Amino acid sequence: MTKKPMKMTGPSAPTSDLRDRVSVSRLGDHLPLVHVTEMGFGKEILVSGQLKATRCKVFDRDLLYFFLGRPAYRLRDESEASQFISRYPCVFVVDPKRITPSQVYPFDTGAAAAGFYEGADPHLGIQDYLLEGSYDGARKQLGFAFDGIDDYFEGRVKPDLTDDVPEFEQATLSYVAIANQANRGKNDPNTYDDRASAIEIATHRHLDLKGAVQLLIMPQQFVEGKNGSKNVVLLNRIKDLGIDVSFYVWDPARTPADFRAEINAKVLNFAKGSSAL
């Protein structure tokens, strides 16, 4: 795959056709927000009690990133198995009511800036895809692009989405080309990227975990070791924060990427069980 980094802006003022297209659609009421990191960082977050906004290289300001519902992620060297459990996924599932969005985009902007979206219109920049900066704006994008929550989690964009879109609506047509990279049925492993249609929500504020994190997904062996040993300090910390935990069983013969489908299913089941999706 040849990487083509996306610029911040195109040759003219940012377009708004994609944002205008989503203005009448809504889907996914109460769908949670999801932040994914490595377990080593996850431990530090739990100890600190906060998810912190940090300097973003793309937008040059402090931001804290989430995806709407979907635990899309790319971790460092995620296609390589490791003996270090700290390299494997840790997922924070967050109540959206606790977040004040600063900006919303229809895909992972970091991946766009790094050039992972080969289908993108080369004359557009990241800011051409900017959506309404609210949780409701994210839901509008979801309702516009997907027939249902299951389709969103599987990356299946509406098959007729561009049937009535004129050729001059560059951002909408380019978005669909990008989003289809998240559809396993349309891509080989070299082009598939689940971040391509995962709706990104960023805030400039830190987030206190207590009362905000609804579910923590982590490797079981990080708190339950051999011969019945327990990571008592971390277990007590999780209890003090009032966070429910769902475990996956770590296997050093598997890669961090191998757990993507299992984690995806856990978040989807949680979302369906806690709301009227």
Helices and strands in order:
Elements: H1 17-21, E1 33-38, H2 39-48, E2 50-51, E3 54-56, E4 61-68, E5 89-94, E6 103-105, H3 109-113, H4 135-145, H5 149-154, H6 170-179, E7 200-203, E8 207-208, E9 213-219, H7 232-241, E10 245-248, H8 260-274
Parallel strand pairs: 9-10
Antiparallel strand pairs: 1-4, 1-5, 2-8, 3-4, 4-7, 5-9, 6-7
How would you portray this structure in words?
This protein has 277 residues and is α+β, with helices and mostly antiparallel strands. It has eight helices and ten strands. Strands 1, 3, 4, 5, 6, 7, 9 and 10 form an eight-stranded mixed beta sheet that branches. It has a two-stranded antiparallel sheet with strand order 2-8. Strand 9 (213-219), helix 7 (232-241) and strand 10 (245-248) form a beta-alpha-beta unit. The protein is globular. The model has no long low-confidence stretch (mean pLDDT 92).
Principal-axis shape equals globular
Helix content: 25-40%
Largest sheet features: 8 strands, mixed
The ordered H/E elements are: HEHEEEEEHHHHEEEHEH
Strand content: 15-25%
Quantity of strands, as a count: 10
What is the tally of helical segments? 8
The low-confidence parts are none
How far apart, in Å, are the first and last alpha carbons?
36 Å
Radius of gyration: 19 Å
Structural classification: alpha+beta
* Arithmetic mean of pLDDT: 92
Give structural attributes:
277 residues, 8-stranded mixed β-sheet, two-stranded antiparallel ribbon, 10 strands
Short description:
The protein is 26% helix and 16% strand. It is an alpha+beta fold.
